[in-house]
Structure formats: C-alpha cells, structure tokens
Amino acid sequence: MTGTPPDEHVRDQVMIATAVMKAYGSGDGAVTALRGVSAAFTRGQFTAIMGPSGSGKSTFLHCLAGLDTVTSGAVVIGAVDITGLSRTRLTELRRDRMGFVFQSFNLLPMLTAEENIRLTGRLAGRRADRQWFDTIVDVLGLRERLDHRPAEMSGGQQQRVAVARALLTRPEVLFADEPTGNLDSRSGAEVLGFLRAAVDSYQQTVIMVTHDPVAAAYADRVLFLADGTIVDELAAPTIDAVHARMRKMEG
To answer: How far is 48 from 57, CA to CA, in rounded Å?
Structure first.
C-alpha cells in the first residue's frame, strides 16, 4: 500500500490491518497465534476468513474488532488506529462503528425481538431511523416476531434478530463469527442470503469467520490462514474452489 496513489479503491478502504502479531504468554511458554498478518477491507465487500483449526482465523477477527489486543502491528478503521485506544474509547467505537453477529446469538432472554434489535442504539443514546428499522425487519421476515422473546423463536429466527440488531446502527463493519454454526442448512442460507443482500444493496462491509465452504461461497473473497499467516486468497469463490483450497491446506 505504501506509495500507491489514492484511487477509488484506496479511498473506499474501511479497515486495514498491518503486520498484526498476537502472542499469548511469554518466554518458552509463549504461543504465537498471528504472525504479521496484513489485509485491507473495502466498503461494500464481503470477506470470509477460513483456515484449519488453530490457524488463527478467530484470533484475527477478534483483533480486527478490538475484542482482543494485538501484541504488535496496527488495526485502523477509517482514520482511527484502534490498537492505541483506551478501553472506554474502544468500547464506544465498537458500539458506534461496528456490528457483531456470533454463533450463540447473544440475545437477552427477557427482551422481545424488537427490544433486542433496538438495544445497541438505546445503549448509545440514539434513536434508530424508523424507515431503516422497517426495512431490516421486513427483509429478514421478522415483522410477526417482534413481540416474541428468544425462547419463543427458532434458532434461525434468533440469528436473524441478531443480524438486525447488528445492522440497525449502520455499522462501518459487520463482524460475523461462525454465524451459521448453530443453524440448520435452510436457516443458515437465509442468514447468509441477507448478509449478501446487505453488501449488495446497502454497501455493508462484512468480515466473517467460517469453516463452511458453502458459507464462504456467499463472500466476494476468501482469505485463508494457516499457522497465523495469510497463505492464500480466493476471489469470487465457489463451493468447489473453496473445498479444493482447504483440502490442499489440510493435506
């Protein structure tokens, strides 16, 4: 990136990771999870991150999202290097500029679907745009479920509520960590289809960790990690192409 003239692609970069290293412990017992990982993420792009167990893919996602600290290197969103922020400022930035979807849904059981969707905005002291709320609810097919609590909904419905909550504040980046891991194939396809639509229709930037080639095929590109480094990248992935790359890595 150094010395590259500013063009549309560079100006549209939402998040950049530069030489990110992450080590746990110290001395002889230290474990290095990331070894100088660099990557750029562009507005309106869906990136999947894959790799064998222990490759560092979830660690990389957590460092990008500020959920884990880096040992060295930089993670920049917009013009802000999140690796130098205080805990309070980092919490505010995640709340205001990032969205999160996890495998375990993370809904509050005592709140209705609508209350869960609106929760992040209310914690930030912001009123959600009613038209955007209605758009998300209708596209995700949640209109008839807004008064239901999580225990009254299927896993797929709960994950759609989690996606709606993540998108309501129009985050600069949405992070998804195995978002279909607890879903059946039909429910998983519905969630992935909406993430794809959010990218195509609303220029949402999505970064997703997955082990599933079917899920990865919804992305614009796949970054493959092994032993804490990016070892391959695949544009316009297909299920067969992702399978082939994974077999090559694991063989």
So the answer is: 10
pLDDT bucket at 6, cuts 50 / 70 / 90:
very low
In a domain, 222, yes or no: yes
CATH number at residue 203: 3.40.50.300
Q: Tokens 């999160």 sit at which residue?
A: 100
Phi, psi of 30 (to 5 degrees): -70, 140
Instruction: Supply the range of the domain harboring residue 215.
Output: 43-56+85-250
Q: How confident is the model at residue 70, as a pLDDT?
A: 96
Higher pLDDT, 94 or 128: 94
Q: Per the domain annotation, does 2 fall within a domain?
A: no
The answer to whether the beta carbons of residues 75 and 83 sit under 8 Å apart is yes
Note whether residue 99 is domain-resident: yes
Q: Report d(CA 166, CA 47) in Å as an integer.
A: 17
DSSP state of 28: G
Query: Could you tell me the strand order of the sheet in which 72-77 lies?
Result: 31-42, 13-24, 72-77, 80-81
Q: What is the pLDDT of residue 63?
A: 97
| Dist. CA 222–CA 130, nearest whole Å | 34
pTM here is 0.91
20 falls within a domain: no
Residue type (1 letter), 119? L
The total number of structural domains in the chain stands at: 1
> What number of other Cβ atoms are within 10 A of residue 26's Cβ?
7
